[in-house]
């Protein structure tokens, strides 16, 4: 085998390009929109601790495994799984993991695009000063006006899908590398500014307490599942997104180091978002469990009060939309790469078809906030069901399969060569975690929800 193996879809220029792209994929709506609202719904501190534990013991080992498999296979996840399984003397059916990933990516992107559309729709009002001295009721009505109108939601959803497909059609490497280099630091700076504002909001201590002081009586089996599902979601794991980014990683880059860097950056962004939002929630007597509208009903209050708020507010929603954009790209790349590899169709065409299908499915989410808001399955709207299925079931199952594949199915020598860790002890730690701790943890969380065994 040649020393310089490369994917037909190209390769990152270097390790840093991968870190930026993977961070771009990881940091998105999951950190700024979803993390605060599910933390609010699941009671705060205890949920955050479980989430952090899941990142450390499940997320990071699986991320390393997923990048490793990707770089080893150098193809779309479906073909990577099949080829790697075959070359390791195993069943080609492991490619099913790639298929379930494509499906999960399709589900997630369909609603992700609708929510990203909310961020897009806030850019203009923020800049035009609509949030100046706005009250909590005022922002609630701005938000409700938006989500109650299918037409507006469709316009913004369509715009976001077009933006996403335009980048994917040009190839992930083009443009993305450059965009992320400036975007991530800018987003980080804006979050710090918001945390600074929150510190002076009068309720910072209360917000921080909610986020970090655990009250385990508030933790249910389902919250533990949501925390674990979110660890996968926020790190973009379990569906092949990080696998395909790994397939563009140069051979000499250290997989473990890069993965840990990405996971830490992602976690810091989520915690900063929480620290910015909850003090505002308490200072304005808002509901912590407000649901998906949480950040859209809190942050505008902060922008409306701070000096230069129109400018910073506009910048923030631009950044949020861009962060969503760099994440959305990775949700669809595995499917597009597969279409190119196996069907020989052009990248542009693959994007068009897949984008259209995703856009259509997204209409379900659009309507779940208005005309279908009463249509529920097990008490969940279309959007909630899709998110639950993809984030809490498909991603953890995909992650479990990735963990099992990397340490029980692939030969240890292949894995050792691919990871090329200088430190044997680090390799042993990763191997042990991935072989025992991670799978057992995922299975326990599942069983606990199903109610077969009760932890508490
Ligand atoms: N991690 C992204 C976020 O937090 C979302 C995302 C991008 C994702 N690619 C993914 C989630 C792949 C799961 C799988 O916003």
Structure at a glance:
The protein is an all-alpha fold. The protein contains 18 helices and no strands.
Structure report:
The protein is an all-alpha fold and 456 residues long. The chain has a single domain (15-449), classed as Hydantoin permease, CATH 1.10.4160. It has helices at 15-26, 29-41, 45-73, 77-87, 95-127, 136-147, 150-170, 173-199, 204-212, 221-234, 241-247, 255-283, 294-305, 309-343, 347-368, 382-409, 412-419, 424-450. The longest helix has 35 residues, at 309-343. It starts with 14 loop residues before the first helix and ends in a 6-residue tail after the last helix. Residues 25-26, 28-31, 108, 233-234, 236, 239, 241, 327, 330-331, 395 line the site of tryptophan.
Report the major sheet: none
Helix content: over 70%
Low-confidence stretches: none
Count of individual helical segments: 18
Give the assembly state of these chains: single chain
Task: Give the termini distance in whole angstroms.
Answer: 52 Å
Mean pLDDT: 92
Radius of gyration: 21 Å
Count of beta strands: 0
What is the molecular shape? globular
**Helix vs. strand class:** mainly alpha
Number of domains: 1
Strand/helix succession:
HHHHHHHHHHHHHHHHHH
